[in-house]
Design brief:
By secondary structure, the chain is of the alpha+beta class. It contains 5 helices and 14 strands. It folds into 2 domains: 188 residues, 2-Layer Sandwich (Alpha-D-Glucose-1,6-Bisphosphate, Chain A, domain 4), CATH 3.30.530.20; 37 residues, no CATH class. Helix 1 packs across helix 3.
């Protein structure tokens, strides 16, 4: 900002494009009232995301924790609220400060604007040991840059009552840019958490459900395990080989073992019976030799 006494203020807070300040007026107590305007860089997200963090009183206790000790809703009507805040004490100030102010917001297609002004409320009278200060005015605007980014501008003029050093009032101006930076950081944290949750949901959808996993394991086990028919056939083949009748070729003694129990000869399987003699065609009667031609049958 150029002209009208605006001066750039050096700050190093993240996502802050600039901070300008000037003396707005001098209060009845002789204290200067400074006004500051902080502007952010272009930041990712929708206007609603940043507005929701700014407007929510519980969230403000997080992004404005360097200033606030308490933050209470006194009255609400539509888009307007009356808010009571107790501020943390400065080391150089004996009395703590509190404020009561009214705020409201307007939502448009490309931006959201919030404003605030001082207001007394019968439920929050001035208390002993406290300085009733004033938010002379406050403004917060978040503007859509494109479908993926937006930009924030915040302004505030705070009137300190009581014997307050000028340095304290000037530091209040710097806190405007700090608050903008904290709001952006808070939104970024929520965006990361949401992205992580979406990723976890997608991964869980790709993983088989317990019932599907059980079916897949059963199918895999079935592929590795022979079927009942295969197992039965293999056992029968093995059993037939093991139970085939044996006979000693030397003495003709039948045996169940590999060697003859009578002469010790190596036993061999007995040839299966044939219905007829291969030489003469005579009927096989089960004898060792054919009854028709005398040929050895087994």
């Amino acid at each position: 900002m150029n002209g009208q006494g605006w001066e750039p203020v050096a700050v190093s807070y993240e996502n802050i494009a600039g901070l300008n300040a000037r003396v707005f007026c001098v209060g009845d107590n002789g204290n200067e009232v400074w006004v500051g305007v902080a502007e952010s860089t272009e930041v990712p997200g929708k206007c609603e995301e940043y507005f929701n963090i700014f407007w929510n009183l519980q969230e403000e206790m997080k992004w404005n924790f360097t200033t606030l000790k308490s933050n209470d809703l006194v009255e609400e009507s539509g888009v307007e609220q009356v808010v009571f805040q107790e501020r943390k004490s400065h080391a150089s100030v004996n009395k703590a400060a509190d404020v009561v102010y009214r705020r409201a917001h307007d939502k448009w297609e490309d931006y959201i604007f919030c404003w605030g002004k001082p207001e007394e409320h019968k439920s929050r009278p001035v208390r002993g040991g406290f300085r009733r200060c004033e938010i002379v005015f406050m403004g917060f605007q978040v503007t859509k840059v494109d479908n993926a980014t937006c930009q924030i501008v915040m302004t505030s003029a705070f009137h300190e009552l009581g014997n307050v050093p000028a340095l304290v009032m000037q530091e209040e101006v710097k806190r405007i840019s700090l608050r903008v930076s904290k709001i952006i950081a808070r939104v970024a944290d929520i965006q990361r958490m949401n992205a992580k949750n979406v990723q976890q949901v997608q991964q869980s959808q790709l993983q088989p459900r317990p019932q599907q996993q059980k079916v897949q394991q059963t199918q895999t086990a079935n592929q590795k395990t022979p079927s009942v028919a295969q197992t039965t056939a293999a056992l029968l083949a093995k059993g037939n080989a093991e139970l085939a009748p044996l006979q000693c070729p030397n003495c003709g003694t039948s045996s169940k073992g590999s060697f003859c129990g009578k002469c010790g000869g190596k036993c061999t399987p007995i040839a299966p019976k044939t219905k007829n003699c291969n030489k003469c065609g005579a009927e096989d009667t089960g004898s060792k030799f054919c009854a028709g031609c005398g040929a050895q049958l087994r």
